[in-house]
Specification:
Elements: E1 3-17, E2 21-28, E3 32-38, E4 57-64, E5 70-79, H1 88-104, H2 112-127, H3 134-147, E6 166-170, E7 175-178, E8 186-187, H4 190-201, H5 212-230
Parallel strand pairs: 3-5
Antiparallel strand pairs: 1-2, 1-4, 2-3, 4-5, 6-7, 6-8
Length: 245
C-alpha cells in the first residue's frame, strides 16, 4: 500500500521534466538522498511557488508509490537562503557544496550529520555571502570526508606510523606520509597540513586561512582521496572563490 513520508529536506538539484514538472534531488536527515517529482510545479500558479529551487531547506511530504521516484505533495519553506543567490561567489559555493554531498552520499542511508553540515554551510553563505572563500569550501569538503569515513590520516605517517619528517601526502595511503614513504605522493607544505588539522577541528564559521598554494594542495588531497577510496570525482573549487591570508 502506498505510504507517505514527511521529512525535512534540502534541494540539491532541480531538473525540468516534461511540460510542467520538476524532478528533485533531495537530501534528508533520516533517509539520505531521495529523488522526487513535483507535478505541475512549473505552472504559473503552482502551489509550490518558487520553493523547489536548489538550496531551499524544506519540510516536505512525499508520496511513496511503486517506483523509486516519489511524488512531492507538500513543501513548506524552512530557509530559502535568498541572499546567497545575489552573489556569484556564494551561489557557486552553494552549488558545489550540494554537488559534493550528492556525489559522496548518493544512497538512502541516513547521515543526519551530513544534512546538518550542509544546512549550516548554506546558512553561513546566506548570512555572509562574502564568506564564500576557498578555505570555507575546502573546510566543508574535509568535514564531508570525515562523515564518509575518508578523513585523511594526519597524526602520523599513513604508511609506517612515523611521527617525524611528515612532508608529503599520499592519496593511496590515505594521508600524510614521511620522507621515507613519499613514493606516489606529492609535496605538502606545512601551511597545508596546518589548514587540514585546523579545519577538521574547527567549526565551518572558523575555517582557518592559508596561502593559495597551500589551499590548492589541500584541494588536491581532498579530490584524490575521494577518487581513490570512494571512486568519486569531485568538481574543482570555483575560480571565483578567494583565499584570505
Amino acid at each position: 500500500m502506498p505510504a507517505t513520508l514527511k521529512t525535512d529536506a534540502i534541494v540539491l538539484r532541480s531538473i525540468r521534466y516534461g511540460e510542467a514538472d520538476r524532478v528533485l534531488h533531495l537530501y534528508t536527515p533520516a533517509h539520505g538522498r531521495l529523488s522526487a517529482i513535483a507535478k505541475g510545479s512549473r505552472r504559473a500558479h503552482s502551489r509550490f511557488g518558487g520553493r523547489l529551487e536548489p538550496f531551499f531547506r524544506l519540510t516536505t511530504i512525499l508520496h511513496e508509490g511503486r517506483s523509486e521516484l516519489r511524488t512531492v505533495t507538500s513543501a513548506a519553506t524552512l530557509a530559502g537562503h535568498p541572499r546567497l543567490r545575489e552573489h556569484a561567489g556564494s551561489l557557486d559555493a552553494a552549488a558545489r557544496a550540494c554537488d559534493a554531498v550528492g556525489r559522496l552520499f548518493e544512497t538512502e542511508d541516513p547521515h543526519p550529520g551530513v544534512y546538518h553540515l550542509l544546512a549550516n554551510e548554506l546558512a553561513l553563505l546566506d548570512d555572509d555571502p562574502a564568506g564564500a572563500t576557498l578555505s570555507n569550501q575546502l573546510a566543508f569538503r574535509l568535514k564531508l570526508l570525515l562523515a564518509a569515513g575518508l578523513a585523511p590520516a594526519l597524526d602520523a605517517c599513513a604508511s609506517c606510523g612515523e611521527q617525524a619528517d611528515l612532508v608529503a601526502f599520499s592519496p593511496a595511503a590515505g594521508g600524510i606520509v614521511c620522507g621515507a614513504c613519499e613514493a606516489a605522493s606529492f609535496a605538502l607544505d606545512p601551511a597545508a597540513y596546518s589548514f587540514m588539522v585546523g579545519a577538521l577541528g574547527a567549526s565551518l564559521a572558523a575555517a582557518p586561512a592559508a596561502p593559495m598554494r597551500a589551499l590548492r594542495q589541500v584541494e588536491r588531497a581532498i579530490t584524490e582521496l575521494a577518487e581513490h577510496h570512494a571512486q568519486v570525482r569531485l568538481r574543482a573549487a570555483g575560480s571565483v572563490l578567494s583565499a584570505p591570508g
